[in-house]
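Work Package 4 report. The design task specified in the project plan requires that, given a folded chain encoded as C-alpha cells, an amino acid be chosen for each position. We show below one input record used in the internal validation round.
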C-alpha cells in the first residue's frame, strides 16, 4: 500500500525534478544570450521592440536618399546649353544693331548725294549760293566694321582741264550778257577748273541781281560747254507811302535807300523802313511804326509800299541838371531850345526832337568852355 501510495508522489517529484532541470538549462541559455547580446552591441545597433497598439508607435525617422549622379549631370548639361543659347542670342542682336546702323548711314549718304543732281546756286538775300554736284556714294567696309563712303568723281571733276568751247547765259531780261560776263573769270578757250566755276557763281550771286543761279555742264569731244541759267530779281516799279501825315512823301523818298526802276533788294527795303522811323524820331515821333509791303506786278516787277503809323509825339515834361555846381540851372536852360514852352504846349515842355536835343548838348558844352571849364 505504501509503495502504491507513494507512486503518485514519485511521479510528481520526477516532474518537479525534470522541471527544475529545465529551468536551470533555460537560465543558462538566457545568460549566454545576454552575454552574446552585450558583445554584439559594439558592432550592431540594438533591436528595439515596441509592445502596444500600432497607432501608438512612434514615427520612424528616414534619412534622405542620395541624389542620383545621372540626374545631376543631366541638369548641368541643360543649364550649360541655356547659357550658351543666351550668349548666341546676345551676339546676334549686337551684330544686327551694327548692321542696321551701317545701313542707315549709307542710306543717309545716298539721300544727300541724290539731292545734288546739278551744280545749283540758290538762296535768299544776304546768303551765299549753295553749289552741289551730283555724285553716287559707294560704301566700303573696313576691318573695324566702320563704313567708309567714297564718292565717285562728278562730271565737273571729270571735265577738269578740258578747254571751254562755249559759254551761254539764259534767263536774263534786264541784266545784259556783257554785264554778266564781266563777273566771270572763265572765258571761252580757257581750261575748265571747278574752283574757277565756284568763284564765278559766287561773284554773280554777290552782284545782287539774281534770285537763283544754275550751271549746266556738257562734255563734248571738243571740250566743255557751260550754260548759266539765271533768275533775275524783280524790278521796283514804284514806291508808295501810307499814313504819313507829318512828313510828306518827297522827304521820305529822300531818306530811303531804294529807288524806282532798280533791282529789288529785300535787305535794302528793311534798311529803308528803319530810316523812315529815324526821320519820324527826329520830329519827336519815337513811337512811329513802319511796315514795308512788297506787291508783285506783271513782267517781274513789284510795288514797294511803306505803311506808317505815326502815333503821338513824345513831349518834354521836365529837364533836370546834375553836377552843375558853378553854373545854375536857369543859365543852362537859357541856351537850350529843348523844353521851351509855347502857346500850343498846354503846360508841357513842348515836343522832343532828337536833332534839337543834340544841338542843345553842344551849346551847353560851349557855355562851359567859354567859362573856362
Amino acid at each position: 500500500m505504501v509503495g502504491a501510495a507513494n507512486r503518485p508522489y514519485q511521479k510528481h517529484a520526477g516532474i518537479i525534478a525534470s522541471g527544475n532541470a529545465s529551468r536551470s538549462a533555460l537560465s543558462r541559455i538566457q545568460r549566454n544570450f545576454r552575454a552574446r547580446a552585450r558583445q554584439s552591441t559594439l558592432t550592431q545597433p540594438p533591436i528595439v521592440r515596441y509592445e502596444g497598439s500600432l497607432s501608438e508607435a512612434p514615427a520612424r525617422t528616414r534619412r534622405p536618399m542620395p541624389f542620383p549622379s545621372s540626374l545631376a549631370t543631366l541638369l548641368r548639361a541643360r543649364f550649360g546649353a541655356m547659357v550658351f543659347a543666351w550668349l548666341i542670342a546676345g551676339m546676334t542682336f549686337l551684330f544686327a544693331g551694327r548692321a542696321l546702323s551701317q545701313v542707315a548711314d549709307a542710306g543717309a549718304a545716298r539721300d544727300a548725294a541724290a539731292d545734288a543732281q546739278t551744280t545749283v546756286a540758290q538762296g535768299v538775300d544776304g546768303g551765299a549760293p549753295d553749289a552741289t554736284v551730283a555724285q553716287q556714294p559707294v560704301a566700303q567696309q573696313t576691318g573695324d566694321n566702320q563704313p567708309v563712303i567714297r564718292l565717285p568723281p562728278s562730271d565737273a571733276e571729270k571735265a577738269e582741264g578740258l578747254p571751254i568751247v562755249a559759254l551761254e547765259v539764259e534767263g536774263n531780261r534786264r541784266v545784259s550778257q556783257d554785264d554778266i560776263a564781266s563777273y566771270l573769270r572763265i572765258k571761252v578757250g580757257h581750261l575748265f577748273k571747278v574752283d574757277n566755276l565756284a568763284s564765278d557763281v559766287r561773284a554773280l550771286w554777290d552782284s545782287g541781281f539774281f534770285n537763283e543761279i544754275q550751271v549746266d555742264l556738257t562734255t563734248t569731244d571738243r571740250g566743255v560747254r557751260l550754260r548759266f541759267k539765271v533768275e533775275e530779281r524783280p524790278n521796283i516799279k514804284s514806291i508808295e507811302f501810307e499814313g504819313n501825315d507829318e512828313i510828306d512823301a518827297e522827304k521820305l523818298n529822300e531818306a530811303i535807300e531804294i529807288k524806282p526802276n532798280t533791282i529789288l533788294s529785300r535787305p535794302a527795303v528793311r534798311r529803308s523802313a528803319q530810316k523812315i522811323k529815324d526821320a519820324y524820331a527826329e520830329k519827336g515821333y519815337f513811337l512811329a511804326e513802319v511796315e514795308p509791303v512788297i506787291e508783285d506786278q506783271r513782267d517781274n516787277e513789284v510795288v514797294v509800299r511803306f505803311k506808317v503809323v505815326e502815333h503821338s509825339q513824345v513831349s518834354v515834361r521836365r529837364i533836370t541838371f546834375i553836377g552843375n555846381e558853378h553854373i545854375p540851372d536857369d543859365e543852362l536852360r537859357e541856351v537850350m531850345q529843348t523844353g521851351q514852352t509855347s502857346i500850343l504846349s498846354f503846360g508841357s515842355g513842348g515836343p522832343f526832337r532828337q536833332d534839337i536835343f543834340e544841338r542843345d548838348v553842344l551849346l551847353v558844352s560851349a557855355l562851359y568852355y567859354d567859362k573856362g571849364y
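The beta strands are 119-122, 138-141, 147-150, 164-170, 210-219, 224-232, 235-242, 289-297, 301-309. Validation will be extended to a larger panel in the next phase.
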